Amino acid sequence: MEFVRVEDLVFEYMKTDEGGAPVATRAIDGVSFCVEKGSFTAVIGQNGSGKSTLAKNLNGLLVPTEGKVWIDGLDTTQPENIWNVRQRVAMVFQNPDNQIVSAIVEDDVAFGPENLGIDPAEIRKRVDAALEGVEMGDYKDKAPHLLSGGQKQRIAIAGAIAMQPECIVFDEPTAMLDPRGRSEVLKIALNLNRKGMTVIFITHFMEEAACADHVIVMDGGKLRMEGTPREIFAREEELKALNLDVPAAVQLASQLRARGVDLPDSILTAEELVDALTQPAPAEAAEEVSS
Amino acid sequence: MIRDITLGQFYPGNSVIHKLDPRVKILATLLYIVALFVVKDFAGFIAPLVLLEAVIIMSKVPRKYIWRGLRPVLIIIAFTLAINLFMVRGEIIWQLGVLHITREGVRTAAFMGIRLVLLIIGSSMLTLTTRPIGLTDGIEALLSPFKKIGLPAHELAMMMTIALRFIPTLLEETDKIIKAQQARGADFESGNLFRRAKALVPILVPLFISAFRIAQDLAMAMEARCYGGNVKRTRMNAMKFARRDLIAAILFCAFLAIVVAQRVLG
Questions:
Q1: Which uninterrupted H or E stretch holds B95?
Q2: Would the pLDDT of A263 be above 80?
Q3: In chain B, how many domains are there?
Q4: How far apart are CA B138 and CA B132, in angstroms?
Q5: Does B213 fall in a domain?
Q6: Residue A145 contacts by C-beta under 8 Å, 6 or more apart in sequence?
């Protein structure tokens, strides 16, 4: 069942040129795709490819200039649908500092449910459950500015979970984090997905995209490629042309293949590469690598 | 330096003082400040001192924490002391050139010093024991009668919540900008006052720009979480005027009565 349906989406924003005259700039140019309920979709693309603008079109923060976005059958261009859309699709943004509203962790997590007008006892339950879900229960009385970037981002995710959405859009949530914070955030996103949450994960780390069921590649406001991570990362040349990389394991595998090591085409992660290199003929593989 | 600030910072706890209704605490703090100005002699400070001591003990906030909040305002206290010490006319007890200290000066300086310290510690007890949301909800509730004459009570309260939340963020931002400017050879430490003030301009401009960027990000994040003003908002910790609030209010009224009686009779 599809949850998000984007049809011929065009988004333009107004910019002023040097003379001060307004010029329409096209950030998204005719993009169409669907996201299945319960799937994990990664959106990759370099800076300025329109991926962040796309994210903001998915919960009505921005509305299409042309085309349509349907969330669970609701058209985001209809103003009366906006609150329902935002309740179904929560967002986690890039900068962990600039999305936390309150000076106490649990009050911040409660902010979304409070806005929805939910009964206080129910908010309490949701906040506790959301904080447990991101393993931040011990920090509920702390001030967010004393936490690490990864912890702050987990609070932001808890704030999204507490609204009980059906889908969470992560807009480059790991871009400002250290490697440890990055893996924590990705782990939580994968966990949520396993429990049935639809996840749309925007990133420029290819290792993160490799964990998705479905990958969308954006460039210059257009959708360039779409498919499973295996399909996408097999097209290394095309990705390079868009200034994108493939995951390190895929790259290493393809270089080894070029040197004559017999490896399957489906390698995506470091674990798979290690397995492929060690299982069939460990001695031979090691020899090939060292030569 | 950034993490030292306790003024306006909440000390998490579960004491009776923490649990009091914020509205009661805010009104009591305001009246306590008024009471400090009703006091006319040293004996009058006994009642506020006893009250403050009782509140500190009940709140279980470590004294070290309270003293730390006092530190940034020490300069103001020292300044007030100096002015009173040297400027008050009266019976001269010590003189050096144009500087002289009078008996009355010593008395006023001590009096003002005690009043200031009691005032600052008293008001920081409010912010130390009340979570920021409680504080702003309390202010919103106390201001809401004025909504009829067009006062945007909810908006003001939300602005205060956000301001409190972003003080540390903006301080960190300032720190980052200062370091970036110093790395490029900017000098903030030498020269006279005027030169130093001028050197601050290259800090303020980027700071303003980043404040606007933060505001934009935050507005976006708030909208994404369905914020739409105060239309149908509920609160996780709804304020309730409980029995302990009534007891606290009665005890506080007794304190006010003692202060006024001491002033009138004493």
A1: strand B92-96
A2: yes
A3: 1
A4: 10
A5: no
A6: A97, A103, B168, B169, B172
**Rounded to two decimals, what is the model's pTM?**
0.81
Give CA–CA dist A77/A10, Å, rounded. Answer: 13
Residue B107 φ then ψ, to 5°: -65, -50
Which of B161, B168, B232 lies nearest to residue A145, judging by beta carbons?
B168
Q: How confident is the model at residue B2 (pLDDT cuts 50, 70, 90)?
A: very low
Judge whether A153 is closer than 8 Å to chain B, CB to CB.
no
Nearest chain A alpha carbon to B136: A102
Asked if B228 lies within 8 A of A83 by C-beta distance, the reply is yes
Distance from the A13 Cα atom to the nearest Cα atom in chain B, whole angstroms: 16
- Written as six digits, the tokens of A225 are 């490629």
Angle between helices A248-258 and A270-278 (to 10 degrees): 30
**A118 near B234, Cβ under 8 Å?**
yes
**Could you give the dihedral angle defined by the CA atoms of residues B104, B105, B109 and B110, in that order, rounded to the nearest 10 degrees?**
-40
Which residues on neighbouring strands pair with residue A49, listed in sequence order?
none
Query: How much is the average pLDDT of A175-187?
Result: 92
pLDDT over 90 at A289, yes or no: no
* Residue B171, in any domain of the structure: no
Tell me if B115 sits within 8 A of B39, measured CB to CB: yes
Contact A214, A226 (CB under 8 A): yes
Q: Which residues of B touch A (CB under 8 A)?
A: 3, 9-10, 12, 131-133, 161-162, 164-165, 168-169, 172, 213-214, 217-218, 220-228, 232-238
Region B230-248 average pLDDT: 85
Q: Which of A99, A119, A145 sits opposite B218 (nearest CB)?
A: A99
In this complex, which of A100, A111, A120 lies closest to B238 when CB atoms are compared? A120
HSE toward the beta carbon, residue B167, CA cutoff 13 A: 16
Distance between CA atoms of residues B140 and B163, nearest Å:
15
Taking CA–CA distances from B164, the nearest residue in chain A reads: A103
Give how far the C-alpha of residue A80 lies from the chain's centroid of Cα atoms, to the nearest Å: 27
Range of the domain at B89: 2-166+238-265
Q: Which CATH architecture has domain A2-233?
A: 3-Layer(aba) Sandwich (3.40)
pLDDT tens digits along B178-208: 888 888 887 777 777 788 788 888 889 999 9
Q: Are strands A2-16 and A22-36 parallel, antiparallel or unpaired?
A: antiparallel
* Strand residue runs (E) in chain A: 2-16, 22-36, 40-44, 66-71, 74-75, 89-92, 167-171, 198-202, 214-219, 222-227
Rounded CA gap, A167 and A161, in Å?
Answer: 9
In the three-class reduction of DSSP (H, G, I as helix; E, B as strand; rest coil), residue A63 is classed as: coil
Look up residue A164 and give its amino acid: Q
Please state the domain extents for chain A: 2-233, 247-291
Cα angle: B119, vertex B123, B125; to 5 degrees: 120
- Answer yes or no: is B119 within a domain: yes
In this predicted complex, what is the ipTM? 0.85
In a domain, B253, yes or no: yes
